Amino acid sequence: MSYVYGGFLSFLISSYNGDMLTNNKYVVIEGIDGAGKTTQKKLLVDYLQLNNQVVCDIKEPGGTRLGEEIRPIIKNSHIIRSAETDFELFNICRRELAQQVIRQELSLGHWVVCDRNWFSSLAYQGFGQGLSVESIVTQTKKSLTDLFLPDISIIIDLPIDVAFNRLRKRHDDVSSDNFESRGLDFYKKVRDGYLWLIKNYSIHKIDGQQSIETINQSIIELVQD
Ligand code: ADP
Ligand code: TYD
Questions:
Q1: Fewer beta carbons below 10 Å: N end or C end of the chain?
Q2: Residues with Cβ < 8 Å from 92, sequence gap 6 or more?
């Protein structure tokens, strides 16, 4: 992990994301609902904090005043809108999160650990809701510029039926949620979107059927590299 080496050496091994000095500390955890993102993000944040690191712990959509205001609109399935509008809402939240929070935290040398980013838009609005991959990638690049790719991107992959069983246990009324009520076929497409991302970008795939401890260990190894 870069901080182990201290100031000067840590500068030598840090990476540039476009013009942005990110110090290899920008981590995104992704996957379908129920994959284990919340669980793993918490364990990673705890680990980093135990090692005296400052961590910015965030989740999309949210993390800014605007994002928190838009989140309930996004999650309200009674507000009818198109897939394009869905993507634009997520993209607005994401751009503000990058500009107001992520950029600042990385420039201070802090870790940023985020639950979801534009990979979710590719999987849900692209593969799930039928928007073109090209339009999502093009618009996202414009919005995020030098933060387009995190230093460490992780997709926790899980068969849909296993994720659904986990979600049934987690929620009292699964159908009340806009996305979680969309059914197996929708989620199969979303999973295909994540598998497409793994093929096309430098993203680590982790088998979500392993134990919580095993997955946590794999993620710690990635941030220590
Ligand atoms: P997500 O944030 O991706 O929706 P969560 O972390 O909330 O997923 O996990 C969904 C449910 O599955 C929770 O009840 C959690 O305790 C459980 N869970 C998470 N990871 C595992 C795992 N590796 N094995 C078994 N159950 C898990
Ligand atoms: P949330 O309750 O945060 O779910 P989770 O804990 O699984 O992350 O709801 C976020 C929902 O929004 C989730 O179903 C995925 C979806 N989503 C998109 O469709 N596109 C996106 O760009 C993002 C960030 C999320």
A1: C
A2: 66, 70
The minimum-distance atom of ligand 1 relative to the CA of 208 is: 23
Give the tens place of pLDDT for each residue, 88-114.
999 999 999 999 999 999 999 999 999
The most confident of 11-25, 63-77, 174-188, by mean pLDDT = 63-77
d(C-alpha 186, C-alpha 192), whole Å: 10
Question: Ligand 1 pocket, 219 CB below 6 A?
Answer: no
162 touches 36 (CB < 8 A): no
Residues in contact with 154: Cβ distance below 8 Å, sequence separation at least 6, in sequence order = 27, 28, 29, 30, 40, 203, 204, 206, 219, 222
Contact 207, 195 (CB under 8 A): no
Distance CA 60, CA 10 (A): 29
Q: Please work out whether the CB of residue 124 comes within 6 Å of at least one atom of ligand 2.
A: yes
43 CA to centre of ligand 1 in angstroms: 12
pTM to 2 decimals?
A: 0.91
Domains of the chain (ranges; CATH) run 2-224 (3.40.50.300)
116 lines ligand 1 (CB under 6 A): no
Q: What is the mean pLDDT of residues 44-68?
A: 97
Q: Output the CA 41–ligand 2 centroid distance in Å.
A: 15
Mean of the per-residue pLDDT values for the chain?
89
Ligand 1 neighbour 30 (Cβ under 6 A):
no
pLDDT at residue 79 above 90? Answer: yes
